[in-house]
Amino acid sequence: MEINWVTVAAQIVNFLVLVWLLKRFLYGPVTRAMERRQKRVRDRLQEAESMRGKAEQERDALKAERDALDRKREEMLSEARAAADKLRHELEKQTRESVDAERAAWFARLSGDRQEVLSDIRRRAGEEFFAIARAAFRDLADDRLEARMIAAFAEKLRALPEETLEKLKSAVRRETSSAQIESAFPLEAEDREAIELALKDILQADVSADYVQREDLIAGIRLRLDSQVVEWGLDSYLDELEERLGTALSDAGVAEAKKAAE
Amino acid sequence: MRISPDEWVFFSYGAFELNATISFTWLVMLLIAGASWIVTRNLSDTEEISPFQNFLEVLVTGLADQIQDVSRQEPGRYLPFVGTLFVFIAVSNLLSVVPGYAAPTGSLSTTTALALCVFVAVPLYGVASRGVIGYLKQYLRPTPFMLPFTVISELSRTIALAVRLYGNVMSGAMIAGILISITPFFFPVVMQLLGLITGFIQAYIFAVLAMVYIASATHAHEVKTARADQSSKES
C-alpha cells in the first residue's frame, strides 16, 4: 500500500484532461441540445397557443356570422309569415264578400220569386174564393154573389165622404167624360140598373156608364169617373192573406237557410 | 499477487513508469471521451433522438438533478467536475468485469489524485463564490478556537475520500481473487456482481461527498445572495 507520487501527478493530469474532454464532448453538447429542444418545444407551444387564439377568433367570428344569418332568416321567416297572414286575410275577405254578394243576389232572387208566388196565390185564391163563395151563396141563400157584391158596392157609393162626392158631382156636371164601371164578372141588366140607381142617387143626375169586364180585378167592382176611382173588392182580404202567407214563407225560408248553414 | 495496479509496470523511462494504473486510466478516458464524441457528433434537438443520445441525456440530467439536490444551487458550474468524478469512477469500477482489467481506482495513487483534486477544488469554488476573505473567514466560525479542528477535518476528509474508494475497490478485487483460488466456480461470480454494485455505489458516494464539501464552502454565500435576491424582489 504505497503511493506512487509520479502516478498521482499523472492521474491528476489525466483527470483534469478528462474533465476538459467531457466538458467539451459530453456536458456542453448535451446541455445545449436539450436547451435547443426545450426552446423548440416552447416555440411550438407558443405557436400552438397563438394558432389557438387565432382559431378562437375565427370561431367567434364564424359564430357571430352564423348568429347574424339566423337572425336574418328569422326576420325573413316572420316577414313571409306576416305576408302570408295578410294574403290569407285578403283572400278570406274577398271570399266572404263574394259569398255575401251571392247570398244577397240569392235573397233578392228568392224575394222576387216569393213576390211572384204571392201574387199568383193572391190571384188564384181570389178566383177560387170567388167561385166557392158564389156557389155557397147560391146553395145556401138562393142568391147570387154578384148581386150581393153590387149591393155592397152601392152601399159603399152611398157612404162616400162629402169631399169625394163633390168631386164626382163636379165631374158629372162638366160632362167631360162618362163613368166607367169595371168588373171581373159580366154584369146582368139588373146589376147595371142597381149601380146606375145608386149613382143617380148620390150624384142626383143621370149618369150613363160604360161597362168593361177585366180579369185582373178578380172579385171586385170599380167606378172610374174622370180621375176619381171608387172600388169595392176582396182586395183588403186578399192583402191580409198575402201578408200572412208572406210571413209564413219568410219564416220557412229563414229556417231552411239556417239548416243549410248548419 | 499484486495488490495495486501501480506495481504492474509495462514500461519505464527514468522516474516515469508506464504502469497499469495509468494505462487503464487512459483506456477508460478513451472509452468515455470517444463514446461521448461519437454520440454528440450528431445531436438531435427534435423529438426524435437516438438511444445513445437518450442515455447521455438521462445521465447528464440525472447528474445535474443530483447536484441540484445536494447543493441547492444552479448545477451548471459544478457539473463538469463532479460529473466527471462520478463517470470516471463508475466506468473504472464497472469495467472490472472484463478479464485482465485492473481498475485504476484500485490504486491508492489514483484515489489520492482524485481526493487531492477535490481538496483543491473546494477552496477554489469557495473563493470563486465568496472571495478570498469570505472563504477564509469561514475557518474562524463559529469561534477562532475551531480553526485547528476545521483544518484537521479538511485534511482528514480528503484522506478518508482517497482511502474509502481505494479500500472498497481493492478489497473487491482481492476478495474475488482469493475466492477464485478457494472456490473457483460459482461463488466468485456472485462476489464479482456484488463488486459491480459496490463500485457503482462508491462512485456515487465519492461524487456526492465532493459535492457536499464544495457546497459547504460556497453555501453561506449563496444563501445570502438568495436572500438578497428575494428581498429585492419583494421590495
From TrEMBL, chain A:
Alphabetical UniProt keywords: ATP synthesis, Cell membrane, CF(0), Coiled coil, Hydrogen ion transport, Ion transport, Membrane, Transmembrane, Transmembrane helix, Transport
Compartments in which it is found: Cell membrane; Endomembrane system
Pfam families: ATP-synt_B, OSCP
Gene Ontology cellular component list: endomembrane system; plasma membrane; proton-transporting ATP synthase complex
CDD domains xref list: ATP-synt_Fo_b (cd06503)
Membrane topology category: Single-pass membrane protein
Chain segments annotated as coiled-coil in the UniProt record: 31-104
Keyword Transmembrane in record: yes
GO molecular function term, any single one: proton-transporting ATP synthase activity, rotational mechanism
Origin: domain of life: Bacteria
InterPro entries in alphabetical order: ATP_synth_b/b'su_bac/chlpt, ATP_synthase_B_chain, ATPase_OSCP/dsu
Transmembrane segments: 6-27
Primary location recorded for the protein, binned into one broad class: membrane
Function as written in the Swiss-Prot or TrEMBL entry: F(1)F(0) ATP synthase produces ATP from ADP in the presence of a proton or sodium gradient. F-type ATPases consist of two structural domains, F(1) containing the extramembraneous catalytic core and F(0) containing the membrane proton channel, linked together by a central stalk and a peripheral stalk. During catalysis, ATP synthesis in the catalytic domain of F(1) is coupled via a rotary mechanism of the central stalk subunits to proton translocation. Component of the F(0) channel, it forms part of the peripheral stalk, linking F(1) to F(0). The b'-subunit is a diverged and duplicated form of b found in plants and photosynthetic bacteria.
Subunit and partners: F-type ATPases have 2 components, F(1) - the catalytic core - and F(0) - the membrane proton channel. F(1) has five subunits: alpha(3), beta(3), gamma(1), delta(1), epsilon(1). F(0) has three main subunits: a(1), b(2) and c(10-14). The alpha and beta chains form an alternating ring which encloses part of the gamma chain. F(1) is attached to F(0) by a central stalk formed by the gamma and epsilon chains, while a peripheral stalk is formed by the delta and b chains.
Protein family (similarity comment): Belongs to the ATPase B chain family.
UniProt name for this protein: ATP synthase subunit b
UniProtKB/TrEMBL annotation, chain B:
Role according to the record: Key component of the proton channel; it plays a direct role in the translocation of protons across the membrane.
Topology within the bilayer: Multi-pass membrane protein
HAMAP family (UniProt xref): ATP_synth_a_bact
Transmembrane segment boundaries: 20-39, 78-101, 113-136, 165-187, 193-215
Species of the source: Hyphococcus luteus
Localization per Swiss-Prot or TrEMBL: Cell membrane; Membrane
Entry-linked CDD domains: ATP-synt_Fo_a_6
Source domain of life: Bacteria
One record GO biological process: proton motive force-driven plasma membrane ATP synthesis
Chief subcellular location: membrane
Protein name: ATP synthase subunit a
Alphabetical keyword list: ATP synthesis, Cell membrane, CF(0), Hydrogen ion transport, Ion transport, Membrane, Transmembrane, Transmembrane helix, Transport
Gene Ontology, cellular component aspect: plasma membrane; proton-transporting ATP synthase complex
UniProt family annotation: Belongs to the ATPase A chain family.
Pfam families: ATP-synt_A
GO molecular function, one term: proton-transporting ATP synthase activity, rotational mechanism
